[in-house]
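Regression check, 1,3-dihydroxyacetonephosphate case 254:
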Amino acid sequence: MERIDGAPWVGTSWKMTKTLAEGREFARGLAEALAAEPRLRERVRPFVIPPHTALAAVAAELEGSGVVVGAQNAHWEDAGAWTGEVSVPQVADAGAALVEIGHSERREHFGETVETTAAKVAATLRHGLTPLLCVGEPAEVRDAGGSAEHILAQVRGALDGLSEEELGRVLVAYEPIWAIGEHGRPATVPELEAPFAALQGEFGSRTAAILYGGSVHQDNAAELLAMDDVDGLFVGRAAWRLEGYLELLRLAAG
Ligand code: 13P
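Current build output:
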């Protein structure tokens, strides 16, 4: 079965939710649904990013399903005395093919910087995994008209020095901080036009894809995916129930 060129990426990070049993159940149901609806696999690139604790189990359930499994974070060093951290070779060993890097929650609460995101992107590429680099600006920056410059600086800093071949393996997710989570509100299509034009203008043809994330729901997914500059969606809450995620995949499949 061939996936059509340019099929949108539609993925979810579970953040710090789900037990091992819940993760397995979701993954098993997803694999069954994709087997029953091959159209979804042809027309969408699904990815699921469980917490580290469920990574191996979810990857095992989703083997051969066409779903890319990712880790929510990984350290830039391959091994060593970094208590509490997990390396790229370790998440690869557990079944991850993708590593999420620089989510705003990690930048805000865990000291992620442009320098650490750059080191993590490099480590991820070095081991042949796909980096999913997340960038986004706070509301004050948006209000001051600085969104595009802010996110371009984050992307430039994280991808500085990569070869064109390496750049071509990077996924970028634009997730305005003010749009993420319970206290966020979804960005509107007009609000996204300038930031996406800036990202696509500088990185669109050089990176693998540029996704949108932040309060994506079943009722705004179609209009976001209809934007020429949006290559996919990165979803939190609206995809944490399997039915919700399947609904988004079906919307994206058209
Ligand atoms: P929500 O979809 O819950 O706003 O989260 C988005 C996000 O942070 C995905 O990384």
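Comparison notes: The chain has one domain: 9-253. Residues 75 and 85 are 6 Å apart (CA to CA). No diff flagged against the previous build.
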